[in-house]
Amino acid sequence: MIRHPETYNGKTVKIRATWIYGYEWTYLHCLGCDGRVWLDTSELDERSEKTIKHTPKDAAIVNVDVEGVFQAGSFGHMGGYEYQLRAHTISNPEVISKGMKGREKELEIERQFACGGVKPR
């Protein structure tokens, strides 16, 4: 998507990606891609709302299936993200890290278990 945003802008997409969230951030990324996509969960269906209630509360790294509308522009905290996925569904969460860790530790975990990693979940 982010390699060819003009192809996907305004279209519904379904992807498996790594969702990284915390106090002021909530974004998707994959190790094989260059960039991050802000994840807007304000339009989730009821089933997806229940699904994400079972993920860690404050900060985590979670692999998920997401379906929603991809948008190019300026999104997220202070407009710091070029892309957004306005999610309608989130399913199949696999928690790979709970809570905040040092950036080096998080990168090590991502290289192993995130989408595009050695042993993705």
What key phrases describe this protein's structure?
single chain; OB fold (Dihydrolipoamide Acetyltransferase, E2P); 5 strands; five-stranded mixed beta barrel; alpha+beta; 3 helices; 121 residues
Please report the total strand number as a whole number. 5
**Overall radius of gyration:** 13 Å
Largest sheet: 5 strands, mixed, barrel
How many individual helices? 3
Order of helices and strands: HEEEHEEH
What structural class is derived from the secondary structure elements? alpha+beta
Please tell me the overall pLDDT.
Answer: 93
Our measurement of the CA-to-CA distance between the termini, rounded to an integer number of angstroms, reads 21 Å
Can you tell me the CATH architecture? Beta Barrel
Number of domains: 1
What gross morphology would you assign? Answer: globular
CATH class wording: Mainly Beta
CATH topology: OB fold (Dihydrolipoamide Acetyltransferase, E2P)
